[in-house]
Here is the input.
Amino acid sequence: MGILTWTWILVGTSFALYIGIAIWARAGSSKEFYVAGGGVHPIVNGMATAADWMSAASFISLAGIVSFGGYDGSVYLMGWTGGYVLLALLLAPYLRKFGKFTVPDFIGDRYYSNLARIVAVIAALIVSFTYVAGQMRGVGIVFSRYLEVEIETGVYIGMAIVLFYAVLGGMKGITYTQVAQYCVLIFAFMVPAIFISFEMTGNVIPQIGLGQAGEDGTYLLDKLDGLHAQLGFSEYTTGSKSTMDIFAITLALMAGTAGLPHVIVRFFTVKRVKDARKSAGWALLFIAIMYTTIPAVAVFARVNLIETVSNKNYADLPEWFGNWEKTGLIEFEDKNGDGVIQYVADKSTNELTIDRDIMVLANPEIARLPNWVIALVGAGGLAAALSTAAGLLLVIASSISHDLFKKILTPKISEKGELIAARVAAAVAVVIAGYFGINPPGFVAAVVALAFGLAAASFFPAIVLGIFDKRMNKEGAIAGMITGLTLMLFYMLKFKFGIFDGGKEAVEGLKSSYWFGISPEGFGTVAMFVNFVVSIVISRMTPAPPINVQEIVENIRIPSNAGEASGH
Amino acid sequence: MTDKQKNATAYWKENLRYLTILLTIWFFVSFVCGILLVDELNSIRLGGFKLGFWFAQQGSIYVFVVLIFVYIRLMNKLDKKYGVDE
Here is the structure.
């Protein structure tokens, strides 16, 4: 069977599975809609969290980023896993004990202020919308590359599926579809990796294969460093970013991960505080399976690619090259007219432009794996994109129906009314996300990476201080969140979009004037520290929080009598 | 201070001590071994890996997973010790 037939079969089967689960796990109450009823098993929740977390970007792009960045790619590997340590140790158990439905709920109650709640709602919406647009785009791209339909059609199909199970099932439906999606995506990622590892190193475990030698007896990593040196690229295992920048980006991604609302809410769905800790452990274990494989895939793909194309006759290239040329992901421009591909670091003589996504999408073809394996990658990419999109949509829906309507605008709304509001909000959010998926504003890709900086600069300090600093009051937290968020937005606009210096063209030239040499991606670390300092200083100059709030803080520090998550 | 409060304060203190130790390890494997000392560690080899590179792309992630499971164990014991488990 051909690749196309296989892809339709695998995608069709997995979609039927998701819809079946959604019908089985409908939400009947607002509690089921927001937190899946609150009795999810910790291992199940860990798996759902892993799928929630690993987005289209993790699945499709990350191996490519590491493959082209080498050591520089470590920031994502450490940043997106180390954040779970912060989440497990500093946030998840206490937020679970607190026992509400959303992150703005915590901020609003802990800081006894609707202003704080509104700031948190706005931050949650900014972070989630920028992120979800990228997911819908991812769905469209996978459809167009594997199933040969228009990107728009792909986005519509994705919207329909997500609409169906997120609106119908709420958190309950999402939880169980995410479990299925984790299984699909991890299988789809591991199978090609295992095949390729065995082919190149003789070891079936990619994590070990990465440290072994290829057929010619040289260690793969040494070989790659050698190839890079020959072609003029910077050494794979040392990279090119400054230590300061690597440090800042890693920390911003870690704190941002711990502060992402769609990840935090998953810990409200388990029964007890100890289950929240346990699910964080399982979630990271499930994520680590993929994240430790990514660097291996990156190296295998890079070696394979260079050996297949570098200094080869264009006419003699294998079939996949032509296939992917058609999609524009790989382009050959014969600058010196010799019909041979010169792939080198020097931009003026380099003849090959490669989109980094190809490292995952075309990798199985480059390694000549069977058709069903190639098709599997498409189903896996869709699972990754859909699971993250659904989690984000739920945050958007609950921010609007619960935090905005129930808590601020119409406190008297009935349970039924709230559930309807949540479903309408989810449906509207899907449509908006779909719109951005079809008409991606140029800034989406840039902003997705920065969503972490924003989360690190706003939520992370406010939540950590809310738990660990009993003296923290609303004045301090609000001032901190607003300063952190504003500073981060300013830095982003200045250095990522060049708004104050004449627009996009100025961005390259501004690189030398980065503060402390830190790029916008890493600036969340600075903004986060500013938030911490501002919060602490202001809180010490203003009155202590009321006694009942101090009691809340004492109470969330002790696991017993967690009770169930409630909206009241 | 009532006995209950004393108990809660003592529990919290021990919890903070665990956090300090575990987060020190978290910082050490990623920021120290994987970033600050990466060049020095790269002169040591672990099979086909340079050690600093291995910490940055493999080792730190393994340690993170172990850290959380150690934390789960420690806290379950601590909860029992202070009678605050569920």
Summary: Residues 3-81 of chain B form one domain. The radius of gyration of chain B is 18 Å. Chain B touches chain A through 43 residues (CB under 8 Å).
